[in-house]
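Example record for the data management plan.
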Amino acid sequence: MLKITDTIKLIFGLKVAFLRRAKKLSYQQLSDRTGLAISYLHNIEKGKKYPKADKIFALAKSLDTDYNYLVSLEADKRLKPIVDLLQSDFLKIFPLELFGINTPKLLGLLSLAPDKVNAFVSTVLKITRNYHLQGEDFYKAALRSYQDLQNNYFEDIELAVRDFRSKHQWEDATTPSTEMLEEVLLLDYGIRVDREYLAQRSVLEEVRSLFVPEQKVLYLNQQFSSAQERLLLAKEIGFQFLNLKERPFETRMIEVDSFDKLLHNFRASYFSVALLMDERAMIQEIEAMSQWKKWDTPAFTALLDRYDVTPEMLLQRLANIFPHHFDIQELFFLRFYTGPEMQKFIMTKEMHLSQLHDPHANQLDEHYCRRWISISLIRQLSAIQSIEGASGPIAGAQISKYWGTPNAYLCLCMAKPSRRDVAYSNSVTIGLLINDKLRRLFPFLEDPDLSVKDVHTTCERCSIPDCGARAAPPIALKRKKDKAKMKIELDKLMGKKEGLG
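Corresponding structural encoding:
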């Protein structure tokens, strides 16, 4: 994450490097002209050193420029996009180090051919501005990419959970109760739990929990199930046990103003889910699923009660275990939300491992394909609620064949109503790319009763004929076809002209 002083050094070094190359001077030649050591010049161009005034005057004279230009944050047209990038939010907040990218080296590569990268950098900045991308957007995208790089499995946290269990003499299969978790917070960290205060403040009803370090009190809202409450308690244990200092104190995060804060929040969440669903126990659950000859919805749903967890916690945990222990790395995770009218389904969370899979968030205000089990299961839940008064959650599985691609996914989905208002619902889905490896793991893929459907991304882009679930006409697809027809006609006309010539 770049600081202002880092930015100033990098811009200065960028200008020196550009002017030196423009004058075709070697480091030795510039050293002879300025009296500065070659190693010192290297560090200047890499943004590691910022020289004193007398040395800047010597550089300006040797490079046929003036002092004020070198020390200003302005640049000529060829360097301006790169300088603008340096001063933009993108490099100030994007955690390049997390991906092993050295900022000075990156800028050195960009500055080698500024004319070629000018348009690219300008495009990045325009996209950032036009789509109102903020630091929070970059942070969340970076976190998802980081999860992908690690195959969504973090061995150091898994080992920390084992150490914690060993310290407290919990067996691997032990599912910690609310009382056990509260006792750890109190005895190990002196933190007591308060369930009254937040419930008395209507303005704080959206706050799930709040930890106040000075008071050593974890305030919990009263609206949650035991599964959700245990998650919050285990998450606070995660913050404490992993010694995560830069962290949010409220759940959910009201403002994402630091990548480290978002990353540490993720690590504490990962710890909590791993603590509630032991790694070795979950491996055994998947191995048991691998013995199914037919898809078994009741057995899948029973996992929620066995571990006293929410659907999202369960599917997120499966997304940790599948890649590392079963080498099922081509997967995605989606979460949808909708209101009582069920006209708009909003994707509120997504993660892709190994590639950008076909189902993905669409920011163009289009209608997601109703054939996705993520959406159809919510609609099914609504029907069950109106007829039977059931509160869910419900589960299902579907083989989703993505129209126009060779890809098909086994989609495992769970849907449930909001705890605060049953008129609002959400679903979570884990999708596993169907290949020989997955077929060997899950024989029930051959179950003739397992639902198989052709799906698309949005109705506006879908060419599936006679779709009984369509929520909007395929207008985007029509525009694309109209452009293709126009191109064919223009190509014909150009061919005629060439023939006449």
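Summary line stored alongside the record: The chain has three domains: 4-133, 153-276, 281-470.
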